[in-house]
Amino acid sequence: MLLVYMDALLAAKRHKREVAIGNMYKIILYICGLKHKYMNEYELSRYDSDIIVKDKKVSDYFEETIKLGCNPKSSANWLTSIILGYLNKYELSINEIFLTPTMLVELIKMVDDGKISSKKSKQVFFKCLEDSKEPSAVVKELGMTQITDDKTI
Question: How far is it, in rounded angstroms, from Cα 129 to Cα 2?
Fold first, then answer.
């Protein structure tokens, strides 16, 4: 429990650099609650949970994808690998990219529904950011839709 507390304290410092002690305690409780929720309700790893709660804007983005019906593990995988990798590379905040939580859910749904492959979804992601276009528009523009109907094949 002490380790979770220390992790939460460090994340709280990242959330707000200059906070009164009373507010710091509330932030720590909030972050611990989020981590607990992510690990127990959404079955995310401790690593993914830690990464998501490090930045309130990222955890808000993640929460929004869940509210929109996205699978928590899929959303966490996209956030912790592809999106945060992109943000770190270009020194951006999650609020500075074109891809909204709604668009991420749309992109993940296209993969889950077999409309595009996971490999193509990464190409769509980067093209969305490059051209400021929605995922469905990029898929249509590039003709990336997979044919999954046996009769058509």
Answer: 40
